[in-house]
Every structure is written in structure tokens, then in C-alpha cells.
Amino acid sequence: MNTFNALVVREAEEGNPKSAAASIEQLSDADLPVYDGDDAVVVDIDYSSLNYKDGMALTGKGRIIRSFPMVPGIDLAGTVVSSESDRFAAGDGVILTGWAVGERFWGGYTQRQRVKADWLVARPSGMSSEQAMGIGTAGLTSMLCVLGLEAGGVTPSDGPIVVTGAAGGVGSVAIAILAKLGFDVTAVTGRPEEHDYLASLGATAFLTRDEMSEAPKPLEAETWAGAVDAVGSTMLAKIIAQTKYQGVVTACGLAGGVDLPSTVMPFILRGVRLQGIDSVMAPLADREAAWARLATDLPGDMLAAMTQIVPMSSLPEQGEAIMAGQTRGRLVVDPSA
Ligand code: NDP
Asked: Does residue 316 lie in a domain region?
């Protein structure tokens, strides 16, 4: 490949991020970043994906992009073209999520990228690039939440798990994994029209976004053995107030806000555990464990049902859509289209 397509975000006026705009450009290998002192790997990218953070980057919200020009895209999956690292050789299937790629370092919205070997995990055997990006950062985060519940000792016999932002990427993958593992899953969604979809993934009960956004009392009826929360703010506070004795709440998102209007009562009277989840800087061993579990515990038909492939050229519109909470499940990005 002498030249290839990439989505590049440039500032029209230097030093003014508000003037930044994205367009598809033709690049060559000479345009790709170099990483002096680190083993670099060149990857031909099959697919990337669209996450909430990508939506923020594409729409300029939250100052996600830290240097310009930038190739956004916090995920990529593809095949190694060349490698300076002993861990990878030409032809290997690899996945990259996080590490501030698509924020500080050039990311996945391109047909080819040069990245640091330390950022890559081997694609599990039997998992395609398309499936890996159907999972992506959102799905990896869902699995890290499930692992957090397990580490806290939560089992299906302890009671139901509540999943918020249910029809989004993190929520959809979490529901499918938890249902496969035998948990009873309640989905919180602002979109009642998605109940059939969420039931098909394994949700057995539903709550509305509105009822779960009401300010909670310090302690409410003990309901949940655990939670996967992608929303934050009042909804997270309500879930904490409703969590059973020694239950575990995994908090990974901020779709509803960054505040947490809670009290200490659930922690000191019920021993509730609040487990923060970060996928961006998660150590390699945690990532490899999560990807291995994703290969076995996320049913392929469920992943296919929640995944839609979109062309890279549609990303500006798709970025607006995910920020408006209008996308369902996971969007896989085809950089060749
Ligand atoms: P999506 O946009 O796919 O899903 C978010 C969902 O949250 C929406 O589909 C919607 O679900 C719900 N939602 C949207 N707006 C609001 C609102 N104002 N109040 C309440 N609910 C709302 O995003 P992702 O699944 O990719 O990411 C979800 C969250 O997790 C984001 O905040 C993201 O930043 C965070 N995240 C964190 C990671 C980490 O490492 N900690 C990694 C990946 C994501 P519904 O319509 O069903 O209500």
C-alpha cells in the first residue's frame, strides 16, 4: 500500500481547537508518526470502532484531542505489516484500545498506522478483526466491569445486576456477557423502543432512565447484587443506595454527568463496594485476561446482533449521533469506505 486513506483532524487556525475540522486525506507511510526509543509496529487496519469518547473527539466536546493534526479513533484491529518488537511479526492479528491513542497519539481511523508495540494485544484465535472491533474499547470495558463484579465475589445466586446506558455500547456488551454467565440482568434505558433488542441480548427486566434519575434517599430498598454503570451522576448515586449488603457497583462512564451526589451511608452501613473501571491505562495482563474472557463469554450471535458496520466517511455524522445517545450497540468503522 503506497498511499492510504485516513481521517485527519486539523485546526484551521493554529492554537484554536474550536477551528478543528475532520476530512479524509490520502497519506503515505512517510506521514505516519515515529516513536524513537520504543519498538514500533506498522499495522494494516481492517476495522476501527466508534466509542463515546470518539464522539467527543469528532464533535470537539471535552477537549479529547490533545495535539493537531490528529488521526482520531481510540481502537483499531488489523494485521502487522512490520515490527521492531519480538512480541509481534508480520502477519499477526492485533488489537489496540486506549493508551490515549486517538487523543495524544494517532489512532485507528485510517487504513494503516504505526503504533508502539506495548499498546498492542494479540487478537485471540477464532476472533476476527470485525468481531474485535464490535467489542472495542466499550466491550473491553464491559468485561473489565464483569471481572470487577467477580473479583468482589458477586455470583448469580446473589441477586440481579443492573446495567445502565443499556442500549449503548458498554451496556449492550455487558448485558450479553452477564446473561451468558447466568446473571439476572435489569436494563436501564431511556429508549423503551429498544426493549426487544435488550431482551434479545438477555435482559429480563427494564427500568426507565427517568425513574432511575430521581434523587435517591441515602438508603433505598436493597435490590442489586451488582451494577455496571455507564451513566454516572444521580443514576449512579441511586444504584449505590439500592445495592444489597456487600454488593459491588462498577462505575465506568459519564454519559449522564461527572458528579456523584451520594452519601457514605451505603458504604458504612451495607459495606457496598464502589469499583472504578478504567480501560485506557489498564495493564497488559488485565487486558489479555479480559480479551481471553471476551473470546469465550460473549456469544458470537449476540455480538453480531449488536454490531453495525459504518464507513469511515460517515464518522462526522455518527459522532454527532453517539453524543445524542442515538446509536444502538456498537458501530464498527470500515476505513476502506
Ligand atoms: P454509548 O453512547 O454507546 O452509550 C451510552 C448510553 O448511555 C446511551 O446509549 C444511552 O443509553 C445512555 N445515555 C446517553 N445519554 C444519557 C444521559 N444524559 N443520561 C442517562 N443516560 C444516558 O457510549 P459507550 O457505551 O461507548 O460509553 C458509555 C460510557 O462509558 C461513556 O460515558 C464513556 O465515556 C464511558 N466509557 C468509559 C470507559 C472507561 O475506560 N472507563 C471506556 C469506554 C466507555 P439508553 O438510550 O439505553 O438510555
From this structure: yes
Check whether residue 174 and residue 90 sit in a common domain: no
Same domain for 50 and 10?
yes
What are residue 178's phi and psi, to 5 degrees?
-60, -40
The three-state (H, E, C) secondary structure of 221-268, written as one string: CCCEEEEEECCCHHHHHHHHHCEEEEEEEEECCCCCCCCCCCCCHHHH
In this structure, the answer to whether residues 142 and 272 fall within a common structural domain is yes
In a domain, 30, yes or no: yes
The answer, yes or no, to whether any atom of ligand 1 lies below 6 A from the CB of 32, is no
Ligand 1 centroid from CA 168, angstroms = 6
- Please tell me whether residues 227 and 327 are part of one structural domain: no
Taking the centre of ligand 1 as the mean of its atom positions, its distance from the CA of residue 218, in whole angstroms, is 25
Rounded to 5 degrees, φ, ψ at 160 are: -75, 155
The residue contributing the CA closest to ligand 1 atom 33 is 253
CB of 209 closer than 6 angstroms to any ligand 1 atom:
yes
Domain count, the chain: 2
Whether residue 283 is contained in a domain is answered as no
Do both 145 and 271 map to the same domain?
yes
CA of residue 212 to ligand 1 center, whole Å: 15
| pLDDT values of the chain reduced to their tens digit, one per residue, 337 residues | 789 999 999 998 988 888 999 999 999 999 999 999 999 999 999 999 999 999 999 999 888 999 999 999 999 999 999 999 999 999 999 999 999 999 999 999 999 999 999 999 999 999 999 999 999 999 999 999 999 999 999 999 999 999 999 999 999 999 999 999 999 999 999 999 999 999 999 999 999 999 999 999 999 999 999 999 999 999 999 999 999 999 999 999 999 999 999 999 999 999 999 999 999 999 999 999 999 999 999 999 999 999 999 999 999 999 999 999 999 999 999 999 9
Q: Which ligand 1 atom sits closest to the C-alpha of 169? A: 25
CATH number at residue 112: 3.90.180.10
Check: CB of residue 73 under 8 Å from CB of residue 107.
Answer: yes
Residue 227's region, left for phi above 0, alpha for psi from -120 to 50, else beta, is beta
Q: Are residues 93 and 18 in the same domain?
A: yes
